[in-house]
């Protein structure tokens, strides 16, 4: 991989030699005859790597290393000297040098060290980038919506994130319970530790205890070696127990012990292990009803239900549908322009559809439209179950013209104004949704509002 490298040495011949060597490897090389000159270069240009002599007039290579790590900690530093001592080597490594080699050195040795240092640097930078992306994704941007219901969810997450309190997330399947759990983790002091998720309903009863707590060798048939469980792997972080209502009663007692004592034992183990883990649990079932039925422990329910966050169904937050459609459309397509991505007819169909699968179903629907090649989501690209869904309307009474006649235009204008007001009322004042409810474009809706003098205040 090509990189920008600064070579620092008071000997011109050494600088030129390393310059030719590194240039031949495809790198862009600058040179400095002292540590002071190198610092000036670093103030004007970012370098992926600095290769410096240790013994130079003025500041030494060790001094330069210390300044670089303070000024540009991601820059890899390789030190070269003719007077190698164990004390210098230890000091250099403590200060953050990638490596330390003595003169005379082999050309291949330098090539290998440079290559490995740059590969390590690239991995570190990629890890930081991915971690930043994950934290950005799950800070709150993973949860889409500005409806009243979602704002309440955001406020609760912000309040509980900094605490150690156990959180129970409830709601129908597909409402984003795991996204909420991740948002809690990535807004908490544990954000730099692990977030592990397990679907308790997807693991056989015979294996779930081992999955959570680990096991020792020989504890059961097939246990050929010691194995850590999720509680150990999530040490210092967050463990998300999805579908907690599916956990067998016998294991519920052991979960309760972990929550109370903050310790557990591996299957077949005799030693208690500490559990510094935050628990976030979720269920789409009514756990209180399960407690009454005797299929879920009451004491465990109250331990888990310190704070409860209920994820609203998509039917309850229909105002968020346009924002969700845009988010998923950008996720699955290369679209980066402006303008409408869905027709009013298609949007009206989405508003009318009850979405039993909630946000997950909407995401799959948008992905389908993208796969089918729709530049704009139109009614025809929606599945028949959505496209043909009908909302039953109240039957209109028969109209009769009075003996004295009727002003048809005035009557129609009055009716139109009433429907405009009802659409705005049903949409919570969101004009795009109101327009979709009436089967018209946003521009036509605004025109009709202006026509009747129905401004924001009205």
TrEMBL record:
SMART domains: AAA, REC. Keywords: ATP-binding, DNA-binding, Nucleotide-binding, Phosphoprotein, Transcription, Transcription regulation, Two-component regulatory system. The modification 4-aspartylphosphate is found at residue 53. The keyword tRNA processing does not apply. Residues 143-371 form the Sigma-54 factor interaction domain. GO terms for biological process: phosphorelay signal transduction system; regulation of DNA-templated transcription. Residues 4-118 form the Response regulatory domain. PROSITE patterns: RESPONSE_REGULATORY, SIGMA54_INTERACT_2, SIGMA54_INTERACT_3, SIGMA54_INTERACT_4. Pfam families: AAA_lid_14, HTH_8, Response_reg, Sigma54_activat. SUPFAM superfamilies: CheY-like, Homeodomain-like, P-loop containing nucleoside triphosphate hydrolases. GO terms for molecular function: ATP binding; sequence-specific DNA binding. InterPro entries: AAA+_ATPase, AAA_lid_NorR, CheY-like_superfamily, Homeodomain-like_sf, HTH_Fis, P-loop_NTPase, Sig_transdc_resp-reg_receiver, Sigma_54_int. This is Acetoacetate metabolism regulatory protein AtoC. The gene is pilR.
């Amino acid at each position: 991989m090509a990189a920008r490298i600064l070579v620092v040495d008071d000997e011109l011949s050494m600088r030129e030699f390393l310059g030719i060597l590194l240039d031949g490897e495809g790198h862009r090389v600058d040179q400095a005859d002292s540590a002071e000159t190198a610092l000036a270069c670093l103030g004007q240009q970012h370098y992926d790597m600095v290769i410096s002599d240790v013994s130079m007039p003025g500041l030494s290579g060790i001094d330069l290393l210390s300044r670089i790590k303070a000024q540009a900690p991601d820059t890899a530093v390789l030190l070269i000297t003719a007077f190698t001592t164990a004390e210098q080597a230890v000091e250099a490594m403590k200060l953050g040098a990638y490596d330390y080699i003595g003169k005379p050195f082999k050309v291949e040795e330098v090539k290998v060290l440079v290559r490995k240092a740059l590969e390590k640097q690239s991995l570190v930078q990629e890890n930081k980038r991915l971690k930043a992306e994950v934290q950005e994704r799950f800070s709150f941007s993973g949860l889409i919506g500005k409806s009243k219901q979602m704002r309440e969810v955001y406020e609760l997450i912000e309040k509980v994130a900094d605490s150690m309190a156990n959180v129970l997330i409830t709601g129908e399947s597909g409402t984003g319970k795991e996204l909420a759990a991740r948002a809690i983790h990535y807004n908490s002091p544990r954000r730099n530790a692990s977030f592990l998720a397990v679907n308790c309903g997807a693991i056989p009863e015979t294996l779930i205890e081992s999955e959570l707590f680990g096991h020792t060798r020989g504890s059961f048939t097939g246990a050929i070696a010691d194995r850590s469980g999720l509680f150990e792997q999530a040490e210092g972080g967050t463990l998300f127990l999805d579908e907690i209502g599916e956990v067998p009663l016998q294991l519920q007692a052991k979960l309760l012990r972990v929550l109370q004592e903050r310790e557990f034992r591996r299957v077949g183990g005799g030693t208690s292990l500490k559990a510094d883990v935050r628990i976030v649990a979720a269920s789409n079932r009514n756990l209180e009803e399960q407690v009454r039925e005797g299929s879920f422990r009451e004491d465990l329910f109250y331990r888990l239900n310190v704070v409860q966050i209920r994820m609203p169904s998509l039917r309850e937050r229909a105002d968020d549908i346009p924002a969700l459609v845009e988010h998923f459309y950008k996720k699955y397509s290369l679209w980066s322009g402006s303008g409408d991505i869905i027709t009013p007819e298609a949007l009206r169909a989405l508003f009318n559809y009850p979405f039993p699968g909630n946000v997950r179903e909407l995401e799959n629907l948008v992905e389908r439209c993208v796969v089918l090649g729709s530049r704009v989501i139109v009614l025809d690209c929606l599945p028949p179950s959505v496209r043909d869904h009908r909302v039953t309307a109240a039957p209109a009474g028969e109209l009769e013209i009075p003996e004295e006649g009727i002003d048809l235009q005035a009557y129609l204008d009055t009716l139109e104004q009433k429907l405009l007001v009802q659409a705005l009322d049903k949409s919570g004042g969101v004009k795009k949704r109101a327009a979709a409810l009436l089967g018209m474009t946003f521009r036509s809706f605004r025109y009709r509002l202006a026509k009747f003098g129905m401004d924001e205040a009205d």
